[in-house]
Amino acid sequence: MATLNTASAKPATHRPGPWSRNRRAARYVGLGILAVLFLCGSIFYERPLWVVDQGIYLQFAMDGIHSEYAQVGPYRVHYFVGGRGTPLLLIHGLGARAEDWAPDISRFTHNGFRVYAIDLLGCGRTDHPDIAYTIQQQVDMVRQFLDVLHMQQADVAGWSLGGWVALKLASESPQRVQRLVLYDSAGLTFYASFDPGVFTPADRAELEQLHGLLVPHPASIPEFLARDILRRLRKNYWVVHRMVNSILAGADRMDGRLNRVSVPVLIAWGAQDTLIPPTTADVMHQEMPQSVLELYAGCGHTAPATCAGRMIPNTVKFLQSTPPMTGGSFQY
Fold first, then answer.
1. Whether pLDDT at 267 is above 60
2. Closest of 102, 105, 76 to residue 88, by C-alpha
3. DSSP 43
4. Which residues, 6+ apart, have CB-to-CB distance to 293 below 8 Å?
5. Cβ distance 247 to 199 under 8 Å?
6. 36 pLDDT exceeds 60?
7. Range from 142-151, 162-171, 193-202 carrying the lowest mean pLDDT
């Protein structure tokens, strides 16, 4: 009678089926995604402005806009450049930088302009020399910048203090400016309802005050974002202090000098600008009768960024009009 030899029998080996292996792989992938999301969230919480900047630079790269430097006299000047066509120089405002034009640059490059968005002296990645930071010093640097890049003439757009720089450039060197665009521009005397110290906020409350001057009906700034904004701003307070002192001295104000500007001018303004009120735009329009005035409802001092979808197409229309648009006042 045959007997079953169990001594040499091997125990059955359990092998996970495809479904079990897929579940395990999915679990690892899910844990990896959660880890990445946690890391990204932590980075955004600690450095939200850095994260926003990476998004800007990615969009610039996709649109063929790149970062460059030019040696302008003793200064190393940073700028973004992209597009093909008519040269268009963009000049930012007080304590700002070229990246602030991010909502606008691609709109211009896609409409036949070669855009140069410059960092003024003491701003962004341009040198921060030990100087007084007068408007005239900025104008002289911008004029030399045009020389270095062999631009005999360009369309020039300035925002806030950058508008002041552009306005003075057009009055002193009209042959260098083909058409001029002034966005919520400084340059004339007006009676401010705020303390100039608002431009160097010390804490979140003062930052909220500044925000309220720039944006109509502003939402409260989250604590983590306010912390990062203040951290970035404080690095450049000494330059801002000198710029503000230069502004208050009034040596470069354009009061009574606007009749020297002979080029076509577009004055585009946020109708709810409480930093530089639209009454300033009215005065500019009256003293430059060739100018076109545009007011944008619901927009404040940051109109070129927050209202770019409405404002920039009209700017393009002005810059490309043949013959140049002159006179008239419009509300949008």
1. yes
2. 105
3. H
4. 267, 269, 281, 282, 284, 285, 328, 329, 330
5. no
6. no
7. 193-202
pLDDT tier for residue 7 given thresholds of 50, 70 and 90: very low
Structure tokens at 53: 């900047």
Instruction: Work out whether strand 265-270 and strand 177-183 pair parallel, antiparallel, or are unpaired.
Output: parallel
Q: Residue 12 carries which DSSP code?
A: P
- What's the CA gap between 226 and 250, in Å, rounded? 32
Tokens of 225: 């974002």
CA gap 151, 145 in Å, rounded: 9
The domain spans of the chain are 25-62, 68-331
Question: What tokens appear for 140 in the block?
Answer: 């002289």
CATH H-level superfamily of 68-331: Alpha/Beta hydrolase fold, catalytic domain (3.40.50.1820)
Contact 291, 267 (CB under 8 A): yes
C-beta of residue 267 within 8 angstroms of C-beta of residue 260:
no
Q: What is the dihedral of CA 193, 194, 195, 199, to 10 degrees?
A: -140
- Nearest to 125, CA basis, from 68, 57, 83: 68
**CB 274, CB 301: distance < 8 Å:** yes
Place of tokens 């970035």: 232
φ, ψ at 267 (rounded to 5°) = -110, 110
